[in-house]
Design a protein that fits this description.
single chain; mainly alpha; two-stranded antiparallel sheet
Length: 156
């Protein structure tokens, strides 16, 4: 038998195998990065939603309190509405974010409220699992005159 006419099954060379492994590794890295980014993006979105939920609770508390009667006249039974300044003073008398959250917590649904209170260990940094995952926290700073109370989303 002539060796030049004999056909041997062709196999991958070492270089071809290494190139294939390198391409698969790059593709796997891109895929893992995409999933990691999606998880981080989802946590950031949840953090923004939690900020909005607390801001809505603050807004509801302010608007609800403006309509509340703080003094009832015993003779006429009529009440005096609280002024915005009285509401601001009440809000600012709570000196920590956690105390202010507690003030407006009646306007949060129970699961959200319980989640914040169980995850928060520092009274000036309102935390949740999503906020912790993204290394963020909420604060309820002092309500300045001439403005509206704001919930801030901060980075650690």
């Amino acid at each position: 038998m002539n060796p030049s006419t004999c056909r041997h099954p062709r196999a991958f060379t070492l270089v071809e195998a290494l190139v294939t492994i390198a391409i698969l590794s790059i593709m796997a890295g891109v895929l893992i990065s995409a999933f990691s980014s999606a998880t981080t993006d989802a946590s950031r979105m949840i953090a923004r939603q939690q900020q909005a939920a607390v801001q809505n609770a603050v807004n509801a508390w302010v608007n609800g309190d403006t309509n509340r009667v703080n003094v009832i006249n015993a003779t006429t039974g009529a009440g005096k509405l609280r002024t915005v300044e009285e509401i601001r003073t009440d809000y600012n008398s709570r000196t920590t974010s956690l105390a202010r959250l507690n003030l407006v917590s009646g306007y949060l649904d129970d699961p959200t409220k319980n989640h914040f209170f169980s995850s928060t260990t520092n009274s000036d940094k309102i935390k949740s699992e999503a906020l912790t995952a993204t290394k963020q926290f909420l604060t309820l700073p002092t309500w300045a005159s001439g403005s509206y109370p704001q919930v801030q989303l901060n980075a650690e």
